Automatic annotation (TrEMBL):
Coiled coil: none annotated. This is 60S ribosomal protein L4-B. GO terms for molecular function: structural constituent of ribosome. Transmembrane segments: none annotated. The keyword Ribonucleoprotein applies. InterPro entries: Ribos_uL4_C_dom, Ribosomal_uL4, Ribosomal_uL4_dom_sf, Ribosomal_uL4_euk/arc_CS, Ribosomal_uL4_euk/arch. Residues 281-351 form the Large ribosomal subunit protein uL4 C-terminal domain.
Amino acid sequence: MASRPTVSIIGKDGAPTGATHPIPAVFTSPIRPDIVQQVHTGMAKNKRQPYAVSEKAGHQTSAESWGTGRAVARIPRVSGGGTHRAGQAAFGNMCRSGRMFAPTKIWRKWHIKVNQGQKRYATCSALAASAATPLLMARGHQVMTVPEVPLVVDSALFDAGAMGRTAASLGLLKAVGAGADVEKVKGSKKLRAGKGKLRGRRHRQRRGPLVVYSPETDGKELVQGFRNIPGVETCPVTALNLLQLAPGGHLGRFIVWTSAAFKALDEIYGSTTVPSAHKRDFLLPSNVVSQADLTRLINSSEIQSSLNAPKGEAITRRGAVQKKNPLRNKQVMLRLNPYASVFAQESQKKQQ
């Protein structure tokens, strides 16, 4: 949750321009890692492509069981002769060249529906986490040289496609202190372990800064300027994606905002009392308890002055007291029934 009232707008040389802007209300949203991880898991499944093994796999041979009486298993065996394949077990999932157990089918449930309210809540939480420097550092981003977080760059630097070239875009990132994060990404490129490197996923590398821009004000030329920088991604402010805001379901993505995109957040997401102008019937999520220190709340003068005086005297409860049988212990019986002594005396008189 961001606590600073305003944020400075950074110029081309990395120094503040003198202009400031209030922190949008979305940065005060509750940070919920559980919701973010659940929504991310569901959304990430919606890009999967169906796969399955061939229906004929493992059954493209003639095989028949030899039955009983041959001191071998009853599994079907390849017929014929003249080759080592003849007589070998076939079809079963335990057999060489047999089919797999429960062959995969393309009608598996590949995609997951995620409620719109949950996706919006997760997006707000991811945005709020992007304004917390400890979360950015915990995620591995190199932000020690960044002037402040969230980092807002003046939109005037993107006029007339000024950042349409990679050299200009990289120079801007270095000027505002994001160059260390880009260098970290460049050094993290490694060869993938396993068969994935044969399937178009040959390398793995970390994620770098995410540049959020306003297409109407900043233009779209900056996408071409940033797309060839390792680890750097771009996203329009009107279509923020949780898969980019919290890669892997981990909060704390380092975001470089343009001033136009930063100013549009209040209109897009609204506040806890003012609804969004772009998302129908949406109010920002708010904390159930804004102050978690209950002891401080209860003992505060405001609450104590409104409480009624305690009724009755304080009751002192005796801790672990041994229970005694009143039928055998006279003192315990008298405590329970004061008339017991009189009753005992009358009983003795009657017996006499």
